[in-house]
Specification:
Low-confidence stretches of chain A: none
Largest interface: A-B, 26 and 23 residues
Order of helices and strands of chain B: EEEEEEEEEEE
Helix content of chain A: under 10%
Number of strands of chain B: 11
Shape of chain B: globular
Oligomer: heterodimer
Strand content of chain B: over 45%
Helix content of chain B: under 10%
Structural class of chain A: mainly beta
Largest sheet of chain A: 7 strands, mixed
Radius of gyration of chain B: 14 Å
């Protein structure tokens, strides 16, 4: 079974703090994603990565950055947390490599509920 | 603009009822459509649909895709309280830098009462 893990289930941070959310997958997937999920807005893509050291902006990248130094690990960074970044953050991974055939179904981690006060 | 629209947004039924959840999409480069079930935590994968008219089944759940009319339905028969969840529909993109990315609908929240 594919396993995607996230470093924290619940996190409370203060405005202005730097926040790191870590995601690790154990299935050698090329593609990794960070979403946030808010009531009434659904899942929105923040950043994605299709290879080590590669990253691409999703639909709402403002206020976030990412890092992918190793294939299995994809980190989301909030440089200076703000209250409007209070949300559920979901990490996902998928295979195959882009440009090849395959289903691209994404497997999700358990989520991190972040509260910024 | 690419979009995925699910309806209804919420639904309350009683155990034993049959429900149909709808997902329509407008996407320029469609690859496949996915259904997920989300309870209290992460979405879990249900079905992937790529071809029109081929029904996918898993127990009491089934789904079908119509690529001409650009929609999919998810049916749940003989509902149980354990079916209560948010059901998410997502379309997989098939071009350029977005290849393999998903566009999600906002979900249908299903509540099954005993």
């Amino acid at each position: 079974d594919v396993k995607v893990t996230q470093s924290s289930r619940y996190l409370v941070k203060r405005t202005g703090e730097k926040v790191f959310l870590e995601c690790v997958q154990d299935m050698d997937h090329e593609n990794m994603f960070w979403y946030r999920q808010d009531p009434g807005l659904g899942l929105r893509l923040i950043y994605f990565s299709y290879d080590v050291k590669m990253k691409e902006k999703g639909d709402i990248p403002e206020g976030y950055s990412v890092s992918r130094e190793k294939k299995e690990r994809f980190s989301l960074i909030l440089e200076s947390a703000s209250t409007n970044q209070t949300s559920m953050y979901l990490c996902a991974s998928s295979s195959p490599r882009r440009g090849t055939s395959g289903s691209y179904e994404q497997y999700f981690g358990p989520g991190t509920r972040l509260t910024v006060t | 603009e690419d979009k995925v629209v699910q309806s209804p947004l919420s639904l309350v039924v009683h155990e034993g009822d049959t429900v149909t959840l709808n997902c329509s999409y407008e996407v320029t480069n469609f690859r496949s459509l996915l259904w997920y079930k989300q309870e209290k935590k992460a979405p879990t994968f249900l079905f992937m649909l790529t071809s029109s008219g081929i029904e996918k089944k898993s127990g009491r759940l089934s789904s079908i895709l119509d690529k001409k009319e650009l929609f999919s339905i998810l049916n749940i028969t003989a509902t149980q309280t354990g079916d209560s969840a948010v059901y998410l529909c997502a379309v997989v993109m098939n071009y350029g830098g977005s290849q393999g990315n998903l566009i999600f609908g906002k979900g249908t929240k299903l509540s099954v009462k005993p």
